Amino acid sequence: MKYRIYDVRILTGDPSRVIDQGAIIFDQSGILGIGNPDITSDVDVEINGAGMTVLPGLIDAHVHLGMDCSPDPFQQIQLDREADTAFKAYRQGIQFLQSGITTIRNLGTKNHVDIAFRQSMEQGIATGPRVFAAGQPIVITGGHGYPMATEADGVEEIRKATRHQIKIGADVIKLMATGGVLTAGTDPGSPQLTLEELRCACEEACRASKTTAAHAIGLEGVKNAIKAGITTIEHGYILDDEAIEMMIERGTFLVPTLLAPLLILEQGRSVPRHMIEKLQKIEEEHRSSFRKALKAGVKIAVGTDAGTPFNMPGLIVNEMELMLKEGMSALDVIHSATRMGAECLHIGERTGSLDLGKWADIILVEGNPLNDWSSLKRIRQVFKGGQPLFP
């Protein structure tokens, strides 16, 4: 089926290229035409986009399929059967799509269910967003996230764990460079995997043309991950000038996940006390580090950390709104949730912007997000690979 959306505002994913009134033509092979409102072709379906905006499908670069958003998800993970996790992942995939998210990068799911979910969609069995899957994260014994992770100690164990993830089909290798908020008994500021262990995993991933992501909250762990050659720093609560300069020099992305700690703090009475105590010490630094990175020009992609407490799939617009409040322009936030997300996944040649020949991952929303941010929640239609999925 070939579609044409006309008389529509187009946000291309490039902040310098906004089309106030134009048209876009696409089918399952990709984007066939864009720009002039008069462009036409033999099409099967025409959609009048008056008063609406077309933009690339959103990319959530940090989610956890199968985590249930409960006050203590790691406790629940230890009780769930593999089938329980799979059912949750499938339901969450639908929720992501309904929110205009056509691509997710999944950074940790027990039993590698995210890889199986991706494969089921490739086989036409399931429906969901494009999934770039990490499978189980790699952590030190008892380290942050161990209930859903592969535990490994020392360079050779890390090497084997990384090669195993690649063998079973991981797109990205997730590494826990520091302790974390959700795992009892770990200090978010404390380094866990060593520089040598991180470097080994990054080298193995690079040999297999895979990307890497490091959960990194404390400064020493952040710097170890950057030095090791990591693709993306996740969270980055504590960044100094040296870390930021290193990220710029090496092209390291930041995925700040600003929303996740706020949701936990807002529900303080219902989450384990250790989470609140940890966040009260570092949450303000989190936002300060984001502002410093933004000002310096660090590459930033949008990730929600969906699956963590009260962090339901599809809250990407809430995350984007926080980035807006902390100093990003509306166009730059949309750029971070589209083109920059695609670049940090190394799929920028295929999606993330509305250019000829790219996948037709497209959303149509009511209104203009540039002056009414809530319009991003008023989704009229979602296309993934040129196929209409919602409503």
Automatic annotation (TrEMBL):
InterPro entries: Amidohydro-rel, Metal-dep_hydrolase_composite, Metal_Hydrolase, Metallo-dep_Hydrolase, OTAase-like. GO terms for molecular function: hydrolase activity, acting on carbon-nitrogen (but not peptide) bonds. It comes from the Bacteria. Keywords: Hydrolase. Residues 53-387 form the Amidohydrolase-related domain. Pfam families: Amidohydro_1. SUPFAM superfamilies: Composite domain of metallo-dependent hydrolases, Metallo-dependent hydrolases. PANTHER family: ALPHA-D-RIBOSE 1-METHYLPHOSPHONATE 5-TRIPHOSPHATE DIPHOSPHATASE. This is Amidohydrolase. It comes from Paludifilum halophilum.
